[in-house]
């Protein structure tokens, strides 16, 4: 990109388009890699042979590639003894999560240890991806496998540059999706996987997704080229590799099933003003199922939704709520239980992979979920977009600082360049 005669927007876009047509999806602009989503499987681009090729080669010597970025950060970490981070940014569907996985794959390749031990740290690091995706990814209008949470993976290395531990931190899981989905989108993959699991689905009295309110608000049940029954087995296998024991796996899916049953509980107005009762026999069945699966008392569960407790200095006042408030209570319970399950999964992944407290240095890879603008944007969306704007600002500052320093060392005379700055937007939200 820096070799272009005219470095302006049309020139940059034209260059990317020309290269894309030649199947060159990667382009450098200085130290930054631009990836254009190929929307096609390119296995030859990412196989063992390719990883071997990029290993230890001076940055810029070979064609632009995500492995070159990963290799450069690994080399810098080893030679400068200094932790590194890689920021993957772009709008929804641009290819961030796929890129992050490729970076992780390369780092486990150069920093891996003995092959053969199936529960090795690097295997666990890689298997944490399908597991987190089953519970944190969903189909959106833009992407069949859109991450609905942000992820920062720290891969820790020891003195000899070998992976010694890892930690996954997650941010801003989209809770609202558990109870509300728009047309042509889906809820989190794990719900459909469990419904398609056959024996396990029967055990939890589940059926086709169209029978559950949390799934049938949209008529999108299947994904092209994806078999949810097979995905269910993959998720279970990932749990094995990551070290989640059988009884914990059962507990996880019990909660997933309980949430689906919870969603089918409906309420009717009660005899008294502003009160609610459970609607009919079918709802009673789902209530009983939810209570059994969550191992709680069925009457307590019902009153949690139909009554509200108000704390006062004189003691607690218990007040009935109308049926629409009971639905809100039900949804809040479902969202909270799901969000806690997700956090529990992340904690367990971290515990089982293990952190190396004495690690010499680490490489962090940030995959935040992309900027999106819907017809109605919830508070959750605002937080996500705000995080993206902050990252963009960080990126701009970092890149311009790097450029400035390079000009200084090369003793090139230059004047400050003006660029589109999003600080105004950040100020609008951040400034008190
Ligand atoms: N390097 C790649 N090679 C092949 N397909 C890709 C690549 N990057 C992205 N894709 C395709 O695009 C889809 C969306 O990419 P994803 O990484 O999930 O987007 P984002 O995380 O930016 O929202 C993926 O499911 C995959 O089909
Ligand atoms: Mg993503």
Automatic annotation (TrEMBL):
Listed binding positions for ATP are 90-97
Which keywords belong to this entry?
Actin-binding, ATP-binding, Motor protein, Myosin, Nucleotide-binding
- Domain Myosin motor, first and last residues per copy: 1-432
Q: Name one GO biological process term.
A: actin filament-based movement
Give one GO term, molecular function aspect. actin binding
Q: Name one Pfam family in it.
A: Myosin_head
The entry's cellular-component GO terms read: myosin complex
Q: Which family does it belong to?
A: Belongs to the TRAFAC class myosin-kinesin ATPase superfamily. Myosin family.
From the Swiss-Prot or TrEMBL record, give the protein name: Myosin motor domain-containing protein
Q: Which organism is it from?
A: Zea mays (Maize)
């Amino acid at each position: 990109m820096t070799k272009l005669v005219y470095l302006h927007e049309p020139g940059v876009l034209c260059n990317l388009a020309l290269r894309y047509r030649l199947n060159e999806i990667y382009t450098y602009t200085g130290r930054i890699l631009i990836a254009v989503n190929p929307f096609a499987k390119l296995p030859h681009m990412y196989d063992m042979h390719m990883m071997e090729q990029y290993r230890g080669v001076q940055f810029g010597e070979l064609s632009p590639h995500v492995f070159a970025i990963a290799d450069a950060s690994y080399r810098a970490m080893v030679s400068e003894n200094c932790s590194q981070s890689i920021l993957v940014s772009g709008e929804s569907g641009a290819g961030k999560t796929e890129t992050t996985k490729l970076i992780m794959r390369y780092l486990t390749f150069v920093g891996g240890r003995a092959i053969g031990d199936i529960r090795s740290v690097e295997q666990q690091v890689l298997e944490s991806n399908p597991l987190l995706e089953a519970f944190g990814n969903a189909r959106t209008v833009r992407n069949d496998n859109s991450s609905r949470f942000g992820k920062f993976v720290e891969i820790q290395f020891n003195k000899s540059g070998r992976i010694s531990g890892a930690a996954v931190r997650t941010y801003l899981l989209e809770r609202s999706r558990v109870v509300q989905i728009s047309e042509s989108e889906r809820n989190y993959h794990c719900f459909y996987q469990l419904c398609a699991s056959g024996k396990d689905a029967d055990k939890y009295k589940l059926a086709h997704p169209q029978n559950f309110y949390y799934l049938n608000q949209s008529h999108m049940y299947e994904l092209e080229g994806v078999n949810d029954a097979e995905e269910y087995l993959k998720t279970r296998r990932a749990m094995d590799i990551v070290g989640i024991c059988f009884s914990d796996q059962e507990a996880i899916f019990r909660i997933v099933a309980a949430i689906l049953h919870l969603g089918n509980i409906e309420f009717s107005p009660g005899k008294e003003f502003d009160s609610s009762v459970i609607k009919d026999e079918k709802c009673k069945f789902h209530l009983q199922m939810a209570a059994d699966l969550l191992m709680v008392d069925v009457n307590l569960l019902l009153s949690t939704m139909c009554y509200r407790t108000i704390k006062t200095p004189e003691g607690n006042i218990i007040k009935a709520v109308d049926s629409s408030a009971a639905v809100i209570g039900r949804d809040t319970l479902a969202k909270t239980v799901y969000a806690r399950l997700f956090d529990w999964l992340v904690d367990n992944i971290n515990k089982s992979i293990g952190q190396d407290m004495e690690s010499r240095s680490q490489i962090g890879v940030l995959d935040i979920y992309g900027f999106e603008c819907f017809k109605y944007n919830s508070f959750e969306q605002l937080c996500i977009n705000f995080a993206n704007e902050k990252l963009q600002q960080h990126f701009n500052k970092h890149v311009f600082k790097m450029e400035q320093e390079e000009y200084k060392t090369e003793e090139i005379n230059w004047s400050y360049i003006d660029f589109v700055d999003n600080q105004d937007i950040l100020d609008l939200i951040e400034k008190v």
